[in-house]
Write a structure and sequence with these properties.
By secondary structure, the protein is mainly α. The chain has six helices and no strands.
């Protein structure tokens, strides 16, 4: 049952069946995403380090909140020091755009 649910979810995401809309501009987010690509992958499907989270297909509101929490020093565990440095120069508009870009990507289902 669990495997069927995961498979159905992956197929739905691959077909673009989603009701989540991002407030930012995905194209502008793609332009800014280079800062994220080294760890999270160009399309948000990290393959370099399994412990780095995949950003592709994430809820854009979650991504905005997570990035802002790193920027404001509210997230302190794990890779927080590195993330704080990466997100420090981002504007609120940049964050919205990045969230829109990564939310629009199809997550790898492996």
């Amino acid at each position: 049952m669990k495997k069927a649910l995961i498979t159905t979810t992956c197929i739905s995401l691959a077909l673009g069946i989603s009701s989540v809309q991002a407030a930012g501009d995905a194209e502008k987010g793609k332009e800014k995403s280079g800062i994220c690509a080294a760890c999270h992958g160009a399309d948000g499907n990290t393959t370099t380090v399994p412990t780095y989270p995949k950003l592709a297909g994430q809820n854009p509101e979650y991504l905005v909140n997570a990035i802002k929490a790193y920027k404001n020093g509210e997230r302190t565990g794990g890779q927080a020091p590195m993330m704080m440095g990466m997100v420090a120069p981002l504007t609120d508009e940049d964050i919205e755009n990045l969230a829109a870009y990564f939310a629009a990507q199809v997550p790898a289902c492996k």
